[in-house]
Structures are given as C-alpha cells and as structure tokens.
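Amino Acid Chain and Its Fold in Token Form
===========================================
Scope: a single protein chain, as residues and as a discrete description of its fold.
Amino acid sequence: labelled as such and written in the usual single-letter residue code.
Position: the record begins directly beneath this header, with no further notes in between.
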Amino acid sequence: RNHIPNSSLKGTAHNVSGNLTRVNDPGGIMLTRSNTTTSSRYFCSTHFASNFALGDQITLSAWIRLESGIIPPNTSMFVRFFNSSGANVQDVVTLNLSNISGDWVRITGTGTITNSTIDFSRNIQVAIGVGTPTAPVTIQTKEWKLELGNKATDWTPAPEDVQAEIDSAKQEALDAASNAQTSADTANTAVGNLNTYVEGSF
C-alpha cells in the first residue's frame, strides 16, 4: 500500500508545501527554484502519519522529469524521521536527482529504519530538496509512493484516498438525488397551483 496521501500530484489535490515555487499541472506538479545565490536548499514536502516500526524496510519511488535548466548538485528526494523533540534523526531513503537531465524517469530506493530514537507517533516527511542552481531550474514530478518492503511496485493511491473518492461519489449521488426530488416536488406544486387556478376560473 502507498502511505503517502494525495500522492498523484496531478492538478490541485495534494498536500505538498515548501519554498520551491509550485505550479499545479494535470501532468504533475511543477517545482521551480529561481534563487541562485542562497546556499541552503529549497524544499517541497509533505508530512503524514505512518505505522512503520524500527527495523522496517521501506521503499520510496516517484516520477521526475527536467522541465528546464540543469538540476544542481545536492538535489535529492528523501524520507525523513524525527525524534520526540522534532529533530531529524534519520533520512531512511535518499535518492539523488542531480543526474536527471531528460524526460520522465522513475526513481526508486530502499532503506531500513535503524535509529532507536525515532518517535513513531510523529509525522514523517517525504520531500524534494533542490540545491543552489547556476540558473533557474524547473522539475516536474508525480506519483510519489512510499511502501513497506524492498520492492517498488506500480503507483497506486493511498487506501484512504480511494475511500475518500468513494465517499465523495456517494455524496454527489445523494445530492443529485435530493436536487432531483426537490425539482420534482417544485414541479408538482406548480402543477397543483395551476390546476387550482384553472378550476377557480370557471
């Protein structure tokens, strides 16, 4: 199962944030870093709860493409865990992105949770960090997946997202039925009023 909520990153249905400029796109979110002077990395990330445990192997995968510019060194995608104080104590998976230079490529990597100070009640972070470019750079990304085990499987939405879509479809159907009934009741009332008017005219 995919542990990342709203992970397709297509359109507006996502939970990512950060100081990379983000542009929603039906094909996958666009991330741009225009600052070429600051040495610190710029990020796009999502935080969420998980049920992972010490000793688990986890696998991260994502689709990435270079839209424009050159991806600088020190650019990566990672899965980060924190201790009870909120300090980063282990990047369990780190994927180098600086060698991506063309069309869509799926990146994958596996790591093992080994740090005993991790507080598993805290949200974990999946993020892309972009190093300092020599010129503005834009990458596009979609279909992030984080799963238990050492094998990257095809992208699927998180089960919670599937259930949310089912619930939304059910609510839309109920609303449509309610609106249809309201329209029918209004029409019947109008016919009744017309009959009353016609009968009272003679």
